Amino acid sequence: MVDSIDKKLLEILKENARLSFADLGRKINLSPSAVRERVQKMEDIGVIKKYSIQIDNQKIGYDIEAFILLKVFQGQLKYVIQQITKFPQITEAHRITGSQNIHLKVVLKNQLELQNLIDQLMSLGDTNTFLILSKIE
Amino acid sequence: MVDSIDKKLLEILKENARLSFADLGRKINLSPSAVRERVQKMEDIGVIKKYSIQIDNQKIGYDIEAFILLKVFQGQLKYVIQQITKFPQITEAHRITGSQNIHLKVVLKNQLELQNLIDQLMSLGDTNTFLILSKIE
DNA sequence: CGTGAAAAACCAGGGGC
DNA sequence: GCCCCTGGTTTTTCACG
């Protein structure tokens, strides 16, 4: 379904998703059209979900990033999941195991916005916030 | 530095980073070269950090994703940060505030691999693992 | 599943507003 | 900061192994 060549392509694309099929082919010794077929197949079967960009949020005025664990109030999970998608500040959300059932990643301009968000989330459940200090890479 | 047109471009690129400058221009009524100038400027100043892909890990045999909070043992932080980059299973790592000072996202093939990873991490600090059940979107 | 060659579309770079 | 033009590259499609 996905062989070692495909995996190599995925690794390369993870680092630079704008390379042309010709460039990709040069890196792994394959013709452009062969590369294209493989990549397209991975798009079709959903291995590649989306091409995206990574943004430096600080440089566009969003100085605060944080993870928030949310322990949703009894019986409110469906409602909360539906609400969460409406917050533009929430950039990622996952259901997780454990007593805290939702994990959020949020991006905000300043502490005031964080406070506002937490105030709103508090009506949905108990929150536990971890500010992101830096990315390790 | 980054105006509202730039932000629109970022939003579009976040969803589909492979659109041509021509397509981007069509979406926001701008010529291809104007779009190119803006996008290139954002690359130059580092607003766009990288073009990447989102992969469906389950479809390539990685059935387990999890967040792990790590409370690093006293005085070991620098060492741990340096070690963490060596684990291919760790796809994201952040320093965070709170008594648990590192937040990890990990991707693994099965429970055995998770167990192995946790065993290794236990030599660096106290772990707290949350399996990811699903992505909310 | 891979190759090769065609036309169509796209990109970099520079001049002009 | 935006638009247009041009030469060169890339993508796309398709017929073939």
Automatic annotation (TrEMBL), chains A, B:
Domain of life: Bacteria
Ranges where the HTH asnC-type domain occurs: 2-63
Keywords, in A-Z order: DNA-binding, Transcription, Transcription regulation
Gene3D superfamilies in the cross-refs: 3.30.70.920, Winged helix-like DNA-binding domain superfamily/Winged helix DNA-binding domain
InterPro entries found in the cross-reference section: ArsR-like_HTH, AsnC-type_HTH_dom, Dimeric_a/b-barrel, Tscrpt_reg_AsnC-like, Tscrpt_reg_AsnC/Lrp_C, Tscrpt_reg_HTH_AsnC-type_CS, WH-like_DNA-bd_sf, WH_DNA-bd_sf
Keyword Transcription belongs to the record: yes
Protein name, as recorded: Lrp/AsnC family transcriptional regulator
Species the sequence originates in: Dokdonia ponticola
